[in-house]
Amino acid sequence: MKDNRLNKRKILNDPVYGFINIPSDLIFDLIEHPYFQRLRRIKQLGLTEYVYPGAVHTRFQHTLGALHLVDSALSVLRSKGFLITEKEEEAVSIAILLHDIGHGPYSHTLEKVIIENYSHEELSLLYMKDLNEQYKGKLDLAITIFTNQYPKKFLHQLVSSQLDMDRLDYLSRDSFYTGVSEGVVSSDRIIKMLSVANDELVVEAKGIYSIEKFLIARWLMYWQVYLHKTVISTEQLLLRIFGRVKELISLGHTIYLTDEFHFFFDNPGKKLNTKDILETFARIDDTDIIGLLKHWENDKDPVLSILSKNLLNRNLFRIEIQNEPFDTKIIEKHLFQASKKLHFTEHELRYFVFTDDISKNAYSAFDDKIQIAYKDGRLIDIAEASDMLNMSVLSKTVRKYFLCYPKEIE
Amino acid sequence: MKDNRLNKRKILNDPVYGFINIPSDLIFDLIEHPYFQRLRRIKQLGLTEYVYPGAVHTRFQHTLGALHLVDSALSVLRSKGFLITEKEEEAVSIAILLHDIGHGPYSHTLEKVIIENYSHEELSLLYMKDLNEQYKGKLDLAITIFTNQYPKKFLHQLVSSQLDMDRLDYLSRDSFYTGVSEGVVSSDRIIKMLSVANDELVVEAKGIYSIEKFLIARWLMYWQVYLHKTVISTEQLLLRIFGRVKELISLGHTIYLTDEFHFFFDNPGKKLNTKDILETFARIDDTDIIGLLKHWENDKDPVLSILSKNLLNRNLFRIEIQNEPFDTKIIEKHLFQASKKLHFTEHELRYFVFTDDISKNAYSAFDDKIQIAYKDGRLIDIAEASDMLNMSVLSKTVRKYFLCYPKEIE
Amino acid sequence: MKDNRLNKRKILNDPVYGFINIPSDLIFDLIEHPYFQRLRRIKQLGLTEYVYPGAVHTRFQHTLGALHLVDSALSVLRSKGFLITEKEEEAVSIAILLHDIGHGPYSHTLEKVIIENYSHEELSLLYMKDLNEQYKGKLDLAITIFTNQYPKKFLHQLVSSQLDMDRLDYLSRDSFYTGVSEGVVSSDRIIKMLSVANDELVVEAKGIYSIEKFLIARWLMYWQVYLHKTVISTEQLLLRIFGRVKELISLGHTIYLTDEFHFFFDNPGKKLNTKDILETFARIDDTDIIGLLKHWENDKDPVLSILSKNLLNRNLFRIEIQNEPFDTKIIEKHLFQASKKLHFTEHELRYFVFTDDISKNAYSAFDDKIQIAYKDGRLIDIAEASDMLNMSVLSKTVRKYFLCYPKEIE
Amino acid sequence: MKDNRLNKRKILNDPVYGFINIPSDLIFDLIEHPYFQRLRRIKQLGLTEYVYPGAVHTRFQHTLGALHLVDSALSVLRSKGFLITEKEEEAVSIAILLHDIGHGPYSHTLEKVIIENYSHEELSLLYMKDLNEQYKGKLDLAITIFTNQYPKKFLHQLVSSQLDMDRLDYLSRDSFYTGVSEGVVSSDRIIKMLSVANDELVVEAKGIYSIEKFLIARWLMYWQVYLHKTVISTEQLLLRIFGRVKELISLGHTIYLTDEFHFFFDNPGKKLNTKDILETFARIDDTDIIGLLKHWENDKDPVLSILSKNLLNRNLFRIEIQNEPFDTKIIEKHLFQASKKLHFTEHELRYFVFTDDISKNAYSAFDDKIQIAYKDGRLIDIAEASDMLNMSVLSKTVRKYFLCYPKEIE
Asked: Given a contact as 3+ CB pairs under 8 Å, which chains touch B?
């Protein structure tokens, strides 16, 4: 037991699962890589901590948690007689470990704000390819699985599907850290019920209630946490700040930026080298955004300065949510009232009074199914198999409209 | 139910206790104050997350948790017939809320590094006095209690003593977030057993086992978490970085600093105005340190640059711990080996190879007692009352010595 | 603090809530009463432990848990400004404490088997009236509330309604003891959201997700636990045993019975005195049933003997469940196959091969509503207020059919 | 996957660990055996539920829990490279499963009261041998391990030693069901630290804090639960009842007994056949004791009748505990006062006023060590290795004296 490989095996403490094993040498090295260590400084739920103070957990923890669940799932599937080689095991572990590596600071909120042309999934793939070069092709199979080109599709589905280990971890973890027990998912139970049919991940029939519960928990977490109105108000504030910064830059103003942000924001539209993008982006995390806000709260542009100060000191917009679009008259009324408090042009006021919509569907049968496997061999989609039938509701897209305005004009 | 006071009453979700009530208008306003909001950006356990990835909780959460426990304790004491006025309730709530307001980034590690002349307790008091001016004397009683000048000493002891609500919260919370179950404390049970005798906080005799468990839990948390050798190694790395920065400044080098750090580090020894200190310090949090490290990893001084890069990428010193001081020869041997890898002067090498000691006592009977109240009126210190007797061990100061050196020279 | 009243105040440990306070002297005395102590020997979930071995908790614990939740709810309602006198507090506490006092051994399974003319609710009321005499009218108000004759209807609704503290406790407790996390309900959160409008218990609008979760949790618990097919099979076995006993008695056979069962089973149809019923019934608990089975497994009637032995040794019927009634031919086929293993008459065989149906609705808007209170004063039933809409599904009665037969004939 | 063996594989829900796998066919059959099913009707903590109402869990659950921990431990040891064959795995699983099979009703309290000549361990071994005959020698290896005659001693130590899986389960489980969090043990962490040296079970050095915590948790559970004074008072009441019954029988009185108790109690001193003992004892469980008490509360002997009624209705002795024996005068004073309330002879009064002692040591270095394995190969006993040193206290036998007397004479 003295070889290098075993020396690197580590056990990590995790508040959600107790212990997490690092299953191999290569995975240990990937975790140690600066690209990955950076995830320690990116909060899983971004600005949600403004509403749920406990929710300061990081993408680093989430990813390790998802790795742990993949390992559990593989061991359950093996015990049911499905062949999974050690090579496949390591590859799918790497795929889940790196599935979020392309996330930037304040993840979803600032996605496509810092780098306009790539989603975080596309960036994750670029990072994987870059690491694959650094590790001399050792990530080949992981990439094949991640991009769903591997015949054993269930391996990809563990990483990305309606029932992937990513979701299973984030629901449990977000629920744990926010203290919102609605999202508690019995991941143990779901994983014990996993099986494989026609190379696809399926759920044994006796696990149907757990799947129903999982889908409902996800739905409830959307409304209680992910789309909580104060969270949206906070995210909008951050978005308006970056909107203003980009506008000011386009108008030729000089705005404080770090080198990394100069790289992305100077000369918008310019062609950037992929390797440069990856290396520069990997130097940015949540702390950079706070650092910028601290400079911008002293910017000479009063719009940028006020918005930045408001975010730092948690002085948020008032927000209203409704099922129909807001009437133009209501918006104009709020703009008018805002104009009495804030001496801005109408264009500037629209950074403080604005409306938009949010929408979300918890489960869509069209994208990807959750298949229930019966003892007689039938495979039936959960939307059809469920006694509760309300899956038709869960899979419907819900659209809600919000209106933000300053607290002062109430 | 339309008055302003009630409008501000809020319930916060907390993963440890479920819900936390904000008990009054003034307390709500203090929480909203930028001085307090800053605590959102100061991690309770600083660099401990490098060992326990879950431990990213903040001083903001901890303080609200301690507030919650104080409120529970007051309500238990009232139910036992002890008079506590509404004014006293608000005052002790404010005192606990602000007891950590003087903490800076990476709390204990950088204490006296950024501001050399004040401990965090002294800074907390200065901030309270400053807020007292802002709120026109409404914090008078809170300050009297915080400084232990109030006749009902048990109110101060809820805020600061061997059995204060600060400790009760941080043990539970640190245990929860690290996933180290050794520190789990039944705070409910301890609080139910609190009572008052001669104006002092005491514990009813039937709570003796819970107190024993609490002291042992604290002891175990020291060795499992607070003094975990890799945590110490990480903290030492941060300390060496700041040591090098100060040395370079004293030698006349130009080092990147933010305005706030220029204020504290330029012209060491200069006289600073207290109000300026408070306002400047309140603009600094954990994110500033990360921001500085990101600049310093490109500094032209190779010592500073290597150390900063190592901390950002979690490339830590190897550390050894033992009960006796390390022999000079061992240190010299490590220095010699380091010199073959790192081409530095001996003085510079001592940033990479060094030794020091840590010591801690979990309970000292001399400072402050935990008194057990028997039904017949006797008050006996836990160290004497405990059947387990090992309190004599717990109260003994333990000193351990560590040696740090680069992983490469192993 | 030396008066008798306070001496009786007690704190009990409870694994679900931590601590339960006994709020008054009278309630302490009621708990000490043999009628109530008997609930220690009646399992909350009866034979469910044959499927979920952890589910051996008692009606005693459940009732104390519900008492705890009522006290929490009253304290929340008071903090929102609703007047509840000390007398009302004690009365509603007594009402919840005694709401299940009429339950007999194996509760729902044997309801109307031992005493044919009374439901357990009717028996609970009779016991309350009997205790009211013993305590000289001190339960008058409790009875008025229990029977819903008190103007402040919300007090009754805390004891019995779609959202009563009985349900809140049993879902949490049954979930805790079975280990089926699907039933976990955030009772804390729901209770914090309770309010009163027009003397009725309502839920504040921001609690709507918790209510949705509560209704779904209840639904899932029905199918995972309460109507689990093996649980039904076990209950049916117990019912068939008592059916056979009664049949044999009516045929003049001498069957072993304890004095208490002689009282109820001899001379069916005879007129019984209420006081005698109450006193005799109060001497019966789960252990009596086991005692009877141990005698009956040696009875000379082979049907009774085999069934009793099967229950004691957990040798259960095979059970099939489907959405439509079972075809007569299938039943006849099973009877025929059973006849080859068991040499019984067809009449006797029908104790081993039989079919019936189960049905359950988790929420019925017709019985009693859960009203959501909006800030603008509107009150809307959850079935209408819920975005998830599937309340229409939850409130639909589901009927399922089962077929039982001996394992041997498979 | 259609063979018989796999068909019998089952997963059970457990509130403490989530899921428990039944690892083999033979183990499934043993669980189904009436000898084992009987453990469903024997509470793990006997009369402790009179103090901790939640503590109604059974020996059935505990044994399955210990089985689960053994399986986890074996899998950890295998992952560290220690060879454990499938045959050994099944054998040690059987040994833990049956280690408590010799327990009778109210376990420790009535041990040697019903069967005077055998401890429960001796009975367990007799049952194993009996089952071994029934299963044609398939338990040979399990018995060899149980009786510590197998060379790989660590297998026996998993079943019975200072650190066996029996203790690990009962501490966790008793803590869970009583709600006394002091006993929470991180069994996961301890099991991950297990290793083997010289065929003995050892603990890796980094697990030392967890072992310290485990020993302290055990100590605290003794005083909080197992030796709680009201628990002792309750157990003494049960013991006095059986003492009186045996005395009355020896005096020639006719006392109600079931057939099984006639077998054991008639003609004391008579020679009994082992097979008869096993079969008769296996028909007795907790419910029989309650059944007897219900008869005895109407016995014509007033001592027996009063004591039995008191136990059924939880009317317990007052109990005092102190470190020294009680003075004869105090006992005589209580006897005298009791004589004024209860018109009995002095001999009879001694069933109501009596004194005795209890003693317990949590860890004794003499019996069996817990060895800590250091990386350099040293093995050191925890009593020596522990920094806390108080192991010397924990391993000391503590003796306490109690005095019981009726509440009425206070």
From this structure: A, C, D
